[in-house]
Fold these 2 entries.
Entry 1:
Amino acid sequence: MQKQLILFFILKVGILSSLFCQVKYEQERTNMVKSQIEARGINDENTLNAMKAVERHLFVPATYKSNAYKDRPLPIGYGQTISQPYIVAYMTEMLNVREGDTILEIGTGSGYQAAVLAEFVSQVYTIEIVDELGLAAKERLKSLKYNNVDIKIADGYYGWDEHAPFDGIVVTAASEYIPPPLISQLKDGGRMIIPVGSLFNVQTLMLITKTGDDIKTTNLMYVRFVPFTRK
Ligand code: SAH
């Protein structure tokens, strides 16, 4: 009887502490959106709702969980990082995507940016070059029921031809130039966001818009991303 009581007590404490964590993370997420994202001028409803919904602490290694909602990028292993929340929100807003859209992401990493987009677009295709990261992201997104994200482990330089053209393309690693296959896989009227520049220099986040054969580039801001690597 006493044993049963102790077990019951342990179970109760377990449930209560996990509930407490849920509430704590939700509060941190609400604060993150308010103070880091809305305060810096992001006002697209879809983007804000997605940033409020995606549980960022489930996308970072266990040792960084308590830093998951801080205003900074975090390591995710293999020399890679999950971007600062504001940068994810900014890139999402600048893509200007809508409910029915199909998006290609290059650089799955943890799967966080893909999950943010998958909250409101119809389909996300994402490519990761590091096998271990791609496989872990696949498992994570499956267990979180993001059924509208497909991950391929490959060199994203070539895009994903079978599913092209895309309404939007987001590249989350810095390339020295814009990979031509990505431009050709962009829909007429589509937008691409990509950091361009070398690892040792300041990189520029660029917006590329395609209208017929006309390709327009706009410099958005200076950024620092991990490098776009090749297989
Ligand atoms: N979007 C990610 C963060 C990405 S960090 C997130 O939300 O967590 C950049 C990622 O791009 C790294 O995981 C890196 O391995 C990957 N990467 C670099 N070059 C690549 C390439 N040529 N093709 C696909 N992925 C690439």
Note: The chain has a mean pLDDT of 95.
Entry 2:
Amino acid sequence: MCEKDELIQEAITIRNKAYVPYSTFPVGAALLTNTGKIYTGCNIENAAYPVSCCAERVAIFKAIADGERDFKEMAVVADTKRPVPPCGSCRQVMSEFFDKKLTIHLANLHNTTKSVTMDELLPFSFQPEDLTDR
Ligand code: THU
């Protein structure tokens, strides 16, 4: 199985663990490191709605908390008509850690996929250097 398909499969599997009593909209994400490890995440909601966390951020935060910094590819899956587009907050978090050329595979449950680079997903993003280059 190619990396893209493996990541999508991992995202589909973790999606079943989503805690989504409010939206009933489960999402799964899988993140591949350059050392070959895969970190998965699902969305985790809360009765105080805004503190919920998306699947993408759960996967990224798990990897970062495990000491990982060097990422290769990501997949995101939801039961949408089109490949699921990540929210703006997740795009900003991705841009903190992902190279501009890193590929993110967006998918649904009907084998429709769209692969985009970080730069395509969030062009002209606010970067750590912007805090110091002034
Ligand atoms: N959600 C994600 O986890 N990732 C996305 O890419 C889109 C939205 C979650 C947030 C919330 O738990 C639910 O989907 C509905 O917005």
Note: The pocket of tetrahydrodeoxyuridine is lined by residues 20, 23, 25, 27, 43, 45, 52, 54-56, 76, 84, 86-87, 90 (CB under 6 Å).
